Amino acid sequence: MRAYRLADGSIAGELRLTRTPVAARLALDGAALDAVVADVRLLAAAEMVGLGQRLLDDTLAYVKEREQFGVAIGSFQALQHRLVDCYAREEQSRSMLYRAALTERGDAAKWQRAAAGAKAFIGENVDAIAREAVQMHGGMGITDELAIGHALKRVLLLARLFGDVDTVLAEYALAA
After folding, report:
1. Cβ(49)–Cβ(85) below 8 Å
2. How far is residue 113 CA from its own chain's centroid?
3. pLDDT at position 144, please?
């Protein structure tokens, strides 16, 4: 096994089987692998929804306390509109997650399509929330001192895990 760090600081590993008898190798057919990928995609989407909420909560707290021109920056209408857009994206993402999670797993194609659609939709929306959070925090948003920068890196990784938005949407279109 060879371990390595990912962009968000987590650890992954590459497992190589050499001189291993064929019977001892992992036996996983295509349908079983597709089911695992769908499960992982939905789990990644769920984690992104949680990260989106954390990013939104931290950003709301920050704009209420950060002052510019003698007033909290949260009182600026332009930032309020951007935060409302983030809130709407978060709620839509949560709804999409619930919809996918409640899909009947008996129909494998329908389940895989729901998981792929949810991951693509949530990945795109939470990525936008993360970028807005970084913008509103300014230079501090990308540093290791705040959770905002860590969450952004994690969202970037999860949004691309088992297929980026374009790849997952292409699979969704083929399945539909």
Report:
1. no
2. 17
3. 80
Band of pLDDT at residue 175, cut at 50, 70 and 90? confident
Asked if residue 39 has pLDDT above 90, the reply is yes
Cβ–Cβ under 8 Å, residues 133 and 59: yes
Q: Name the nearest CA neighbour of 129 among 159, 160, 161.
A: 159
Residue 67: strand pairing partners:
72
Q: Give CA–CA dist 95/63, Å, rounded.
A: 26
* Residue 4 reports pLDDT greater than 80: yes
Closest CA to 119 of 171, 165, 167: 165
Nearest C-alpha neighbor of 98 from the set 143, 30, 49:
49
Specify whether the CB–CB gap between 123 and 158 falls below 8 A.
yes
Say if residues 129 and 86 touch (Cβ distance below 8 Å).
Answer: yes
Which of 172, 161, 129 lies closest to 41, judged by CA? 161
Distances (CA, A) of 4 to 10, 44, 61: 9, 20, 35
- Per DSSP, what are the bridge partners of residue 2? 14
Asked if the model's pLDDT at residue 130 lies above 70, the reply is: yes
Q: What was the pLDDT predicted at 26?
A: 64
Q: Which candidate, 101, 121, 96, places its Cα nearest to that of 172?
A: 121
